[in-house]
Amino acid sequence: MTGNDIVILGRLADPYGIRGWLKLHPFGDDPLDWGEIPVWWVSKDGETWRECGLKGLKVHGNGVVVLLEGIDDRTAAEAMKGVLVGAPRDALPETDEDEFYWADLIGLDVINTAEERLGKVVGLLETGAHDVLRVVGDDEVERLLPFVAAVVLTVDKEARLIRVEWGSDW
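Structure (tokenized):
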């Protein structure tokens, strides 16, 4: 399966315990819902993906830990640190009207209320308080825009456009 068919759900972080569990850094709000997806896909580069069965997913402390097939001890878990996890789009739960998978936002044009094109979304960052859009303009200038209602006015996936309240000189 190619990277275009996969929605990236998160990244595996540090091992948890000695039986192969890993901390999951989710790129979304409801990672426990992903437990309904029996097969996840893993990739080191975001391009080449392979299937990996899900054996366990649970809340631990302030985060989530995951157990994948074939990862049976701490050494195997350490080798998976930093690996991306995803799933085919058709296996994912539907989003609500104002919810988006990060993959749906990447590549969208960003225009402000003055009709100035700020660039394209090239990625997102999770800051703890809220997500941040990484927008790169034609001039290669990168802007970091908070993904909050006061800044992001509309997201039109069909038109591939995000309208924001953000000055071009900010």
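The first strand starts at residue 6 and ends at 16. The first helix runs from residue 74 to 79.
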